[in-house]
Amino acid sequence: MNTAVRTEAKPPLRVIVVGMGVRSMIYSRVALTNPELLEIVGVVDINERRREYAQLTFGLDPANCFATVEELVAVPKFADAVINGTMDKLHVRTSLPILRHGYDMLLEKPFAINEEEAAELLTCARETGRTVMVCHVLRYAPYYQRLKQVVESGEIGRIINIRLSAQVSYFHESVSFVRGKYASAELCGSGMLLTKCSHDLDLMAWIMGSNTPRRISSVGSMFQFVPENAPANAGTRCLTDCPAERDCPYSARRLYIESPQRWADNVWHDSNMRRPETDEEKEAFLSAPENPYGACAYRCKTDIVDHQSLLIEYQDGATGTFSMTGGSSFSERRIHVIGTKGEIYGTFETGRFTISTIVPEAPEGRLQHVVDVTEAQANCHHGGGDREVVLDFIAQMRGEPTSPGKTLLEDSVTGHRIVFLAEKSRLANGAMQDW
Q: Do residues 165 and 334 touch, judged by C-beta distance below 8 A?
């Protein structure tokens, strides 16, 4: 966590938000809770309703509200930095003119959708001398901060193998990656491994430190959400022509009206509409023939994977694995790091991990103790990392002490490149890709 003590009275960092979506709004809340640190002074969003929302929420001058980045860079620079929360495929094309116009940037992950874009953004940041920090918020969670400290202490020795896994719940899977805006590379510009799991592979790269990969292999496919897995007699739309709707776990009525979970509001937000107030309004919305959120989950023609695994061989001979499974009964991130002197294993959602070290004279030949950070990250999505990455960006801009997990653009390259090579391998039937 960022524990820098700010003793000097300094003006708040003046920021323009580009892409006022869900993630940008989460980061921008620091301006509401800590106006002495952050001030939102402008917005760029093609959607008029979102511009109006930002103008009202942050008291913006209408002259500082723009529909496009081109409009923003056509006027003189009037802020210190930008929070860029646009869709994945827009990250580089919107960032380049902003950096060239003199703004520093806090950029949502993934910072690029392929190696060519990544190289272009890195070159631009270096040539302009601008700071770009990437929102790998899990590095800021107390759980992973403490785990990284244990690894660096040498308590478990040199890492032999590192294993991470991510389960994406059936609810999140259906909203975002089957029916939603991340359901195809054409829509979002990237696959699920980059969109959802760049967090996890960034963590793997961060924990392994200077020990970079030597080669990577990956396999994965669309396994569940295909027409042949639809319930017998299933229709094409949940609320209009499906006799199997009542018994289907992916019924749009059950998921988005009767038993909504955390991601339910994405249905309305990502459709650029206000949240319906009544069930009748929701049903009418989901029944519309072209609405993707009311379509049969098994007939959406999703072109990204719903499960994928990868294998990494590191430069020193260590190995690493990562597995993502979409459509599981609940969301969970697991980690197991095995070293020459012991190991660490745990689950992020519990806020606890166990350290087990080799001690031949001890009972069972090992000693164990549990690290518990549940209190530090209680009731905080991403373990509080969403807020901490913004505070760290402010500290970076002010020249103050920053977090050891700070994610400048250069720090984020390895995790992204793992994804790019893993996807290249998957498309080549798992063929090994040299680093």
A: yes
